[in-house]
Amino acid sequence: MNDQLKAILEVLIFLSQEPLTVDKMREVLGEIPEDELQAVLQALMAEFSREEHGIQIVRSAGGYLFTTKPEHDQWIKRLLQIEKKARLSVAGLETLSIIAYHQPVTQAEVSAIRSVDSTYSIKSLLQKKLIKIVGRKKAPGNPLVYRTSEKFLEYFGLNSLDDLPREEEIAKILEEEKQTIS
Amino acid sequence: MNDQLKAILEVLIFLSQEPLTVDKMREVLGEIPEDELQAVLQALMAEFSREEHGIQIVRSAGGYLFTTKPEHDQWIKRLLQIEKKARLSVAGLETLSIIAYHQPVTQAEVSAIRSVDSTYSIKSLLQKKLIKIVGRKKAPGNPLVYRTSEKFLEYFGLNSLDDLPREEEIAKILEEEKQTIS
Amino acid sequence: MEQENQGCPEPSEETEVSQQAAGDGYQVKLEFFEGPLDLLLFLIRKKKIDINDIPMAVITRDYLDYLEKKDQINLDREAEFLFIASLLIYIKSQMLLPREQETLAEDDPRQMLIDRLLEFQKIKIASSLLREKEEVELQCWRRTFRPPLEKPDELELLQVSLFDLAETFFLIMKRKERENLRIIKGKDVSAEEKLKEIIDYLGKNGSMDFLDYFSSQDSLEEALVSFFCLLELIKNHLVIATQEELFQTIRVWLRKDKTPHQVHGSSHE
User: Fold this and answer.
1) Which residue(s) pair with B63 in the sheet?
2) pLDDT, tens digit (0-9, with 9 covering 90-100), for B95-137
3) What's the pLDDT at A9?
4) Cα B120 to chain center, whole Å?
5) Which residue of B has its CA nearest to C82?
């Protein structure tokens, strides 16, 4: 068996976002006898179908692709769940940045700045405990007022809110944008 | 050897968006004896280090990660039709080295060591996420303080800051250079 | 082992050569002095001088000679080169002053300069060691995508840093400012024209910095259309776009194996 070819095919399938077709393999590797290519692909699939592997190579849409084996789904779900807890969506990040810099602030104020209704983002930040409710504003409807939490400081490694980069500091960093090519 | 655990770890490392730490594995899998986990991880790394595999598991930024082996780089570039990957500029790399060895450090301190204004380099490294803001220094003007990030470790294939080239290593090269000159 | 190689053609020599040239790129650039300490170290090395015992008169003269020639220094850094020049002259004058006693080692007016040079030299070496690591790492590719999963929406979540937080806020405020000032333009932008424009540009230039392109658009509408066109191109596998993280530049390449007329073809191959 041609070990080097096997290793290279493994790499190509690993990095290809869409199922890798035999034509594409040929294009990358140059001419290879059909039967040799097929034999190596079979060997590669056989190798990963062994029980000690959690990932496998499957044929899909006319090509080859790495997927996970279905029997490990429960662990995959747990991993994704844990990753999700540590991450923010773009909307969440926008909302959080406004609360951080404008606190104390109401949902309506955040929505006005983002030009997008932010109820859902605020709810999700509350669940992640990155923000907290600190009371109500003396205004029509007495809306709830939000502030960032202790956990927010922890998440971003800050000692206090005074450590937040100031607007003019960020502006200075960002505005020199197209000046030099480093 | 615990084949099932091996398969599950393979899946988790394969799926994780960043190097998967042992802590996170534990969080997903529940309690597993430390030595068992380590043994399986070792076996998994050994398996993929064999020549017939084109992908490998490396230790990076305190976790485990699948990458391709360097010897297959040429084929990957052909697959993705990419000429070459961008490298850091000389100024960027110099600035990054200073931050790596002197962290936590301010922009003014970096500029002093280089004798060159380093605002632009720092900005560019921030945007590449190779460094991060970690607070302020208690000094006039309360300047922002920088550190290297997790991504810095990943970018250079380091497991932790302890893997940075050591002082002695640098001193040895200095000594060699001296001898070639005189 | 050698026989086993047969199935895999070796890369052409051309690839090898171009890779090597790329690898040497940064060393060539070192001949051009980024900053004053680069120049000083170069002069010290050239004269084979001991860094701990710099003959100030010689070095100062050489340094000033280079400044006059200027063709090898980074002119953006002229002020910084001049600053070190004045420091050299100052040290030289200090050393010429008559002293009551023999100079003690710690009183050496050169000490500050020596310390700086030694520190800088260390950084240079550390940089070159990191460069070697970078070289290897750039050849190790990782997957930036996941295999098809049940709930793909979870992929959009980001890991964010303090800088992202501040930058996001700043960008929202900018956007706000612009919204207030926006002039509504009559120009209609068609997606078709925009698609063609992007593909033509890529055909000519190979790749593009999408954020630059995006911000060079005349109106918000036009910018948005160009963004949707990019999404369309990615969806149809006509271009490769890479963005390491949010807010970083999106780099776009044309896939050489596809042709533009496939744009409106079905996305299921």
Assistant:
1) B60
2) 999 999 999 999 999 999 999 999 889 999 998 999 999 888 8
3) 96
4) 22
5) B115
C149 versus C122: the higher-pLDDT residue is: C122
Tokens 């969440």, located at residue: A92
Average pLDDT score, chain B: 92
Which chain A residues are Cβ-neighbours of C172 within 8 angstroms? Answer: 94, 97-98, 113-114
A:12-41 residues touching chain B, CB 8 A cutoff:
12, 14-16, 24, 27-29
A82: chain B residues, CB-CB within 8 Å: 24, 27-28
Per the structure, the count of domains in chain A is: 2
Query: Tokens 């060591």 appear where?
Result: B113
For residue C111, the number of C-alpha atoms closer than 13 Å in the C-beta half-sphere is 7
| Side chain identity, residue C161 | S
Q: Indicate the pairing of strand B55-60 with strand A131-136.
A: unpaired
Confidence of residue A69 (pLDDT cuts 50, 70, 90): very high
> Using CB atoms, which residue from A4, A84, A96 is nearest to C8?
A4
Chain C residue numbers touching B90 (CB-CB < 8 A): 26, 29-30, 34, 127
**Do residues A103 and A177 both lie within one domain?**
yes
Q: Which residue of B has its CA nearest to A77?
A: B28
For position C150, what pLDDT does the model report? 60
For residues A128 and A153, what is the distance between their CA atoms, to the nearest angstrom? 13
Who has greater pLDDT, A84 or B70?
Answer: B70
Strand duo A55-60 + C207-209: pairing: unpaired
Instruction: List the single residue in B58, B69, B165 with the smallest CB-CB distance to C126.
Output: B165
Mean pLDDT of the region C168-189: 67
Mean pLDDT of A30-58: 93
Vertex B111: Cα angle to B110 and B112 (nearest 5): 90
**Torsion of Cα atoms, A180 then C246 then A165 then A103, to 10°:** 150
Contacts of C163 in chain A (CB under 8 A): 165
Q: Return the pLDDT at A175.
A: 64
Q: Report yes or no: C93 and C66 within 8 Å, Cβ to Cβ.
A: no
Last residue of a domain, one of B79, B102, B119: B79
Q: Residue C143: its chain B contacts at CB < 8 A?
A: 66
For chain C, the structural domain boundaries read 11-138, 152-264
Architecture of domain C152-264: Orthogonal Bundle (1.10)
Cβ of C162 within 8 Å of Cβ of A88? The answer is no
Asked if residue A129 and residue A71 are part of one domain, the reply reads: no
- Using pLDDT thresholds of 50, 70 and 90, give the confidence band for residue B49: very high
Asked if the model's pLDDT at residue C99 lies above 90, the reply is: no
User: Which CATH number characterizes residue B60's domain?
Assistant: 1.10.10.10
> Which of A7, A72, A165 faces B8 most closely, judged by CB atoms?
A72
Q: Taking residues C188-202, what's their average pLDDT?
A: 80
Contact: C169, A40; criterion CB under 8 Å: no
